[in-house]
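This entry is retained here.
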Amino acid sequence: QVQLVESGGGLVQSGGSLRLSCAASRIFFSIYIMGWYRQAPGKQRELVAAITGTGTTNYTESVKGRFTISRDNAKSTVYLQMNSLNSEDTAVYYCNAATIIAGVDYDYWGQGTQVTVSS
């Protein structure tokens, strides 16, 4: 069974940094687009950042210049370095793995990790 296990969340002061990790198992990691999503209370889940197997990245506008997504295909792990955090970054952060194989969508989610930024 595919597993995505996030770690690295926690409580941080405004202006601080956190690094999230997501370790994947039982998938051919390098062919998956890996993404970090977040969901704040009362809001819809939104894409924060994504990275292809070859390293092409995409960020939502509000985190550009502050967050960096990266991946280590050898370790089947994706990271999200978050700097200059503010209260609007408070949310549960979810790791996602997605790909299409022979016309079939494969989409997996982690259990989420809480990030709380105190002002």
User: Anything to note?
Assistant: The mean pLDDT is 97. Residues 96 and 109 are 5 Å apart (CA to CA). The two ends are 40 Å apart (CA to CA). The chain has no helices and eleven strands.
